[in-house]
Write a structure and sequence with these properties.
2 helices; elongated; transmembrane; transmembrane helix; 0% strand; 89% helix; mainly alpha; membrane
Length: 65
């Protein structure tokens, strides 16, 4: 049983990091879909406020990252 402890610890650590990566991936997918929706909404409906919000969103994402 003592031989399995490091493997189990490594498995739980990898599982936790993979869960965090999956969470970041879902957050990026959500942000990207909202970004594309705002850009295409601005292009289709011709509203400059939506386009301005999309540009500000991209600038804020570059500043955060």
């Amino acid at each position: 049983m003592a031989e399995c402890t490091p493997n189990r610890r490594a498995f739980f650590f990898y599982y936790r990091t993979s869960q965090i990566r999956l969470l970041y991936f879902y957050a990026f997918i959500t942000w990207f879909s909202l970004f594309l929706y705002s850009i295409f909404g601005a292009l289709i409906k011709n509203r400059p406020i939506l386009l301005l919000s999309a540009v500000l969103q991209s600038i804020a994402s570059y500043l955060i990252d």
